[in-house]
Amino acid sequence: MIRTATPADIPVIHAMVRELAAYEKALDEARASEAQLAEALFGERTAAFAHIAEDDATGEPVGFALWFLNFSTWRGVHGIHLEDLYVRPGARGGGHGKALLTELARICVERGYERLEWSVLDWNEPSITFYRALGARPQDEWTMYRLTDDALRALGSHG
Known about the structure:
By secondary structure, this protein is α+β, with helices and mostly antiparallel strands. It is built from 5 helices and 5 strands; from the N terminus they run E-H-H-E-E-E-H-E-H-H. It has a 5-stranded mixed beta sheet, sandwiched between helices. 35% of the residues lie in helices and 22% in strands. It is globular and about 55 Å long. The protein has helices spanning 10-23, 34-42, 96-111, 125-133, 149-156, and strands spanning 2-4, 49-54, 61-72, 77-87, 116-118. The longest helix has 16 residues, at 96-111.
């Protein structure tokens, strides 16, 4: 079952974010607190949204998708950027990842959004295979760039 996250889900979302970071070999970079996630998902200026995948038999959360809106100047409409998709190892292969992506695709179709986009680490072959099987294609002609920490502060202080 897929459902919209509630404030009560913050601890489990936080735990799964950390599990995902450990899987991606970057646990030390996962610094978001439960309070920060609560503010982003349910605060005064909501910036992100989340869905929870529950085990059909137990109702326990086994995965999540955390996403936010983007905008295409070329198409003139919003899209969804999927920041995190995670299913706990014991629940993988049970259709939860596909169900989460199906829900986001449904939201796109319902709202007239024309894109559902995400990034995947180039070494994560199981996920790449899964995404390709759904019909997703890599955007190999684009290279993502990121400013963080000292570089971001240096550029931001020159305004």
